[in-house]
Amino acid sequence: MILATTMVCMHSYLGSFHPGSGESFWGMWKGTVRADWAAHHHAKWYEKVASGK
Protein backbone atom coordinates (compact mmCIF):
# COMPACT_ATOMS: atom_id res chain seq x y z
CA MET A 1 0.00 0.00 0.00
CA ILE A 2 2.86 2.36 0.77
CA LEU A 3 4.45 1.68 -2.61
CA ALA A 4 1.17 2.33 -4.44
CA THR A 5 0.66 5.62 -2.58
CA THR A 6 4.22 6.69 -3.34
CA MET A 7 3.80 5.86 -7.02
CA VAL A 8 0.53 7.81 -7.27
CA CYS A 9 2.15 10.83 -5.60
CA MET A 10 5.18 10.71 -7.89
CA HIS A 11 3.01 10.27 -10.98
CA SER A 12 0.87 13.26 -9.95
CA TYR A 13 3.93 15.41 -9.28
CA LEU A 14 5.72 14.54 -12.53
CA GLY A 15 2.57 14.99 -14.58
CA SER A 16 1.42 18.24 -13.02
CA PHE A 17 4.12 20.20 -11.24
CA HIS A 18 7.53 19.13 -12.52
CA PRO A 19 9.05 22.05 -14.50
CA GLY A 20 9.68 19.90 -17.57
CA SER A 21 6.16 18.50 -17.67
CA GLY A 22 4.07 21.65 -17.60
CA GLU A 23 3.48 21.83 -21.32
CA SER A 24 2.50 18.15 -21.43
CA PHE A 25 -0.04 18.67 -18.67
CA TRP A 26 -1.65 21.64 -20.40
CA GLY A 27 -1.63 19.74 -23.67
CA MET A 28 -3.73 17.03 -22.05
CA TRP A 29 -5.96 19.59 -20.33
CA LYS A 30 -6.52 22.02 -23.25
CA GLY A 31 -5.77 19.74 -26.19
CA THR A 32 -3.05 21.98 -27.64
CA VAL A 33 0.67 22.63 -27.15
CA ARG A 34 3.03 25.31 -28.42
CA ALA A 35 4.50 24.63 -31.86
CA ASP A 36 8.09 25.01 -30.64
CA TRP A 37 7.50 22.52 -27.84
CA ALA A 38 5.92 20.00 -30.22
CA ALA A 39 8.77 20.40 -32.72
CA HIS A 40 11.36 19.80 -29.99
CA HIS A 41 9.71 16.84 -28.22
CA HIS A 42 7.87 15.17 -31.12
CA ALA A 43 9.76 16.21 -34.25
CA LYS A 44 8.42 13.53 -36.62
CA TRP A 45 4.82 14.15 -35.64
CA TYR A 46 5.28 17.92 -35.83
CA GLU A 47 6.78 17.74 -39.33
CA LYS A 48 3.89 15.58 -40.51
CA VAL A 49 1.28 17.95 -39.07
CA ALA A 50 3.08 21.11 -40.21
CA SER A 51 3.42 19.81 -43.77
CA GLY A 52 -0.31 19.10 -43.95
CA LYS A 53 0.05 15.44 -44.93
Strand pairing plus helix content: what structural class?
Answer: mainly alpha
Q: Roughly what fraction of the amino acids lie in strands?
A: under 5%
Alpha carbon gyration radius? 15 Å
Supply the number of helical segments.
Answer: 4
* Order of secondary-structure elements: HHHH
**What is the CA–CA distance across the termini?**
48 Å
Nearest-integer average pLDDT: 89
* General form: elongated
The count of strands amounts to 0
State the domain count.
Answer: 1
Percent helix range:
over 70%
Largest sheet properties: none
Summarize the structure.
This protein is mainly α and 53 residues long.
Describe this structure in words.
This protein has 53 residues and is mostly helical. It has one domain. 75% of the residues lie in helices and 0% in strands. It contains four helices and no strands. It has helices spanning 2-16, 22-30, 35-41, 43-51. The protein is elongated, with a radius of gyration of 15 Å. The mean pLDDT is 89.
Write the layout of secondary structure elements.
Blueprint: H1 2-16, H2 22-30, H3 35-41, H4 43-51
Helix pairs in contact: 3-4
What brief labels describe this structure?
mainly alpha; 53 residues
